[in-house]
Amino acid sequence: MSKDAKPTQKRIDQFFSGPGARADDWRDLVDAAKTWARGGDRAKYDAALADLSVTEEFHGYPGLQLMAALREAAAAGDGATSLALATRITQALATRSFRQHAGDWSAKDEGNGDVPELVPPTFGAHTTRRPYFETLIVTGVSPGQWPALAAEWRKLRRPVDAFIYEPVIVGSLEDAFCATMLNPNIGAVIINEGFGLRSRHNAPVLRSITATAGLNDESDASALRLAQIIKRVRPELDLYMISNRDVEELAGNPEASVVRRIFYSVEELLELHLSILEGIQDRYDTPFFDNLKKYAQRPIGTFHALPIARGKSIFKSDWIRDMGEFYGPNLFLAESSATTGGLDSMLEPTGNIKKAQEKAARALGADRVFFVTNGTSTSNKMAVQALLAPGDIAIVDRNCHKSHHYGMVLAGAQPLYVEAFPMTEYSMYGAVPLKTIKQALLSARADGRLERVKMLDLTNCTFDGHIYNTRRVMEECLAIKPDLIFLWDEAWFGFARFSPFLRRRTAMGAANEIEAWMHDPKSVAAYEKQRAELGKSPSDEALLKTRLIPDPRQIRLRVYQTNSTHKSMSAIRQGSMLSVKDVEFHTVEQQFKEAVFTHASTSPNQQLIASLDISRRQMELEGYGLVANAMEIALAIRHAVNNNPLLSKYFRILGADVMVPAQYRQSGFTDYLAPGVNWANTLKSLDEDEFCLDPTRMTLVCGTAGYDGTQFKGILANEYNIQVNKTSRNSVLVQSNINNTRSDVAHLIRVLAEIAGEVDRGLAQGGANAKKTFEARVKSLMTDVPDLPNFSHFHPSFRGDAGTKTNEGDIRSGFYAAYDVVGCEHIRLNDPEIDRRLKAGPELVSANFVIPYPPGFPIMVPGQVITQETIDFMRKLDVKEIHGYDAKEGLKLVRTEALAKLGRPKPTATPKLKAAS
């Protein structure tokens, strides 16, 4: 390193820079090497190499030897060798060729290399491609012995092994934590005793976090403590412990349950190697998919009602053979309506579907998981129907997906609608404040109706990315009603399980934390302390202001989570999973089966079931890295749009400071890209704030460019081949996922730049009139926006048994009132009769659901009294798609006469005796 170079040591606690940032660091090293090799200053190269060396310790490739070779070439002043080796490593990382090609591990560019000590044995010797992973080894052995230790591990590799792994060695708890966070390739962790606490590198933010965890001195660096920390961060990893002490006592310690297996000393290194491979195999196995592949290769004679099975009707046809050529033979060979011969039944799984669902439960942190093959709409309806009976009250976000509303109709349950905070400027709602939810529960209690409130039904995260503090919501609600059931619709949030940042905000993540808290003796003390502070009969006002602690002895934890697996994992469309963590499930299991029988197809698609199985395998083995990449891509898009001078003139992506009002960001967190933001203050926000913003969901404002959301979505799709999902009046939703690459980012940014350039040129060349027209258009989209209508109330005819303080209603009766053609009427939206009746009566009562897209939630539900604000909103809507509304016919309303009949007491039928047969 030159004397003038003064590199700043790289911080190892900046975890929002993922795989893409690592690739950029290597490309920067290559660029610096090129400059040096051409006779330029080598200081930049030395600084880049020193910076890179810190975090590369936590990766298997390029490894200790290749990094040493880079440093040796630099020390020798050999710019050409430095450039050649840095370029080869960078290319191997970009293509991931190092996973299969032994030559990539050599310091010399000679095929498989002539430096045996650098070549991991058996690389390239096996003809079949073997999945590659890395194993973290935490040890107290001095760093000088690490190369020899790694060589010993490589000697254990055998050609018959189904997988191949490379050791990554660290010597402290902090470094083990950092490696776990930074290296998505880690598949297993071996923890020896005798390691230290502190990292050799600068990590002040990291140390502030370890201090809050009670990790203050070297005595805290215990193997068991590290195992618990890693399991909390990466629950999918297999952990193994090697102890020189009383392993029998350690194995019997309940806290050691996070460890897959404990070994004494190093007496059985081969057994440990085989255990590691077995653990990976356990996650790799896909019971249904594996059996389906075997089934497809068997000579089957099909005499059941599925003509395309085996594909003969396809491939022998002159007319539809192109279908077979498009999809390939395996699709048809794997088709069957049978549930025998190695397959299983979705309705009553006892074989490989059952095993696949058990593996999914493990992956998602649930007690049990149900596969659903017709979307999360069905998952939601199944859960609502199974858990609610006629007359039960459910507190429901009025803006939730329509499947929840229809589920209430099917179950005969009475929704008590609660409102989310409005974001009127962007024609969208956020999420429901906890105070609103608590008020609903307390009002029900004051009315003597709390026993009838069975469920809280919320969307997490919302379409626009608002994430609840799920643990706080459940704990505070359980403090009021200890047996309340929670249904969290996490259709868009399934990936969050595999992010250590977002996992705590999922239903299952929070449920597991609450369960652990309940078993902590400190929980009872915390409850008793608050109980003494509040007194025997605290007022509702005091309860609303207090962060309530439930009585852990009274809690009946009942949590359900639905995920659209196809929305965030590699499942075929309509693939969904329903996760359960319910201590009372045995009491509802039979009715849950009945709900499955009601909604599930008796002929589910085999390929769809297999994709659910496969998506679980992928997320358990590489989901951590895929989700980290999706988050990194989202942050790159946010940065590129908001910091580009041209783009930011006409477009912007809304930050957390805009999407989440300040009163719900108690930590003071503003945005992921705000100056000074790191993972420590982001974690503080995730732990404390009432609502957070999912970083992968980006609200791109296009109204400032003169486009409404629907128009801009069409331009992106029709002219640039870019697909987005949701729109609002003046924005579109851009979502990153595990499928996206940085090439996708480049394409999006280039397109936005092109559109912004066109707007810019049009204004510059169009003169004053063009500018006035543009400003008027922007004003209409960004300022003259309609107020969002709140839910009003159910008509008294649908509130026969309602309380005085709550606003639930019999939505089922309202829904079926629409079936009475004579009892309904239609009035066009702009008919003066609407305005007359709003002023003088009789009331306008909706006969059906009315759901505009956007915003995509019901602004009217059956039995709801229609108010002026709802009519004003409808009249200002300029969207083409409104479910439940026919512009030619007008609003469908329940006639006043029919309402009067509905409101009368129902006559009791006199039972008739059957005639004797």
From TrEMBL:
Stored CDD domains: Orn_deC_like
Keywords: Aminotransferase, Transferase
Cofactor section: pyridoxal 5'-phosphate
A GO molecular function held by the record: transaminase activity
Domain Orn/Lys/Arg decarboxylases family 1 pyridoxal-P attachment site: from-to ranges: 286-518, 558-735
Organism superkingdom: Bacteria
Transferase recorded as keyword: yes
PANTHER family from the UniProt entry: AMINO ACID AMINOTRANSFERASE (PTHR42832), BLR3474 PROTEIN (PTHR42832:SF4)
Protein name: Decarboxylase
Originating organism: Bradyrhizobium frederickii
